[in-house]
Design a protein that fits this description.
Elements (H helix, E strand, L loop, with lengths): L1 E2 L2 E7 L2 E5 L7 E2 L6 H5 L5 E2 L12 E5 L8 E5 L4 E5 L8 E3 L9 E6 L2 E7 L4 E4 L2 E4 L1 E3 L1 H7 L5 E2 L9 E9 L2 E10 L4 H10 L5 E3 L1 H4 L3 E5 L4 E3 L1
Parallel strand pairs: 3-6, 4-5, 11-18, 14-17
Antiparallel strand pairs: 1-2, 2-3, 4-6, 7-8, 7-19, 9-20, 10-11, 10-16, 12-13, 14-18, 15-16, 16-17, 19-20
Length: 226
């Protein structure tokens, strides 16, 4: 299911899992008494993580990028279908998936007239008025260079982080206009996430942009199809 362009999948009853391709390992972080029941469906460890307190209390499992290891997954934001598939449909356009470490998927986006690398991040989120929604991220180094050029919304979210509106980007050969990017700390992507992924990049593309696409990620062969 899709809510505010963030992806959730049903675990059982009214309990959910949160899909985050920009995260690391998969684990259960609430309701430890249900771990045995969950393990009947998905082999998963339990650990507490207060960093996920922003998620709804119904969310008890975090699906990180190890969930997609060597698999093919459909991220169909248009029709709200999210599941594993075994075969790539015909007549799709392939794009290079940059990958060096774990299952982080990165790809090129035309940004400010240049081909820049971004993280494919279904879990990129912001909280406004206590409601979570999808967003995209820019490293503070990039954001600060552009803030005098484009419209900036100060104190955009509950953390009082600013947001910049980029007039146009080109992603998967498609022009997307008036894209919101939230500022992350300087070197959050330049250094930290570049070290995590092994690939230099400047930010993350989240569901506020991905919502326009039907995407297949082939993690085994490192290809993105649209």
């Amino acid at each position: 299911m899709l809510k505010n362009n963030l992806i959730y999948i049903k675990i059982f009853d009214n309990l959910l899992g949160f899909l985050d391709t920009g995260g690391g390992m998969t684990f259960q972080f609430r309701k430890p008494e249900l771990n045995n029941k969950i393990n009947n469906k998905i082999k998963i460890i339990y650990r507490e993580d207060t960093a996920l307190d922003y998620l709804s209390k119904k969310v008890i499992v975090f699906f990180g990028n190890d969930y997609w290891d060597n698999k093919i997954y459909l991220f169909d934001y248009v029709h709200q279908n999210f599941y594993f598939i075994n075969k790539i449909p015909k007549h799709l356009t392939p794009y290079t998936m940059f990958n060096k470490k774990l299952n982080y998927a990165l790809f090129q986006v035309q940004f400010e007239g240049k081909n820049e690398v971004f993280l494919f991040d279904t879990g990129a989120a912001t909280t406004r008025n206590n409601k979570n929604s999808a967003i995209s991220f820019l490293d503070g180094n990039v954001f600060d260079k552009l803030q005098d050029k484009y419209k900036v919304i100060k104190k955009y979210d509950d953390d009082r982080s600013p947001c910049i509106i980029i007039p146009e980007i080109i992603i998967f050969n498609t022009i997307v206009k008036n894209v919101k990017f939230l500022r992350r700390e300087k070197n959050a992507f330049y250094n930290f996430m570049t070290n995590q992924t092994g690939i230099k990049h400047i930010g993350a593309i989240g569901g506020n942009i991905l919502k326009k696409f039907k995407i297949i990620c082939d993690y085994k062969h490192k290809v993105i199809y649209v």
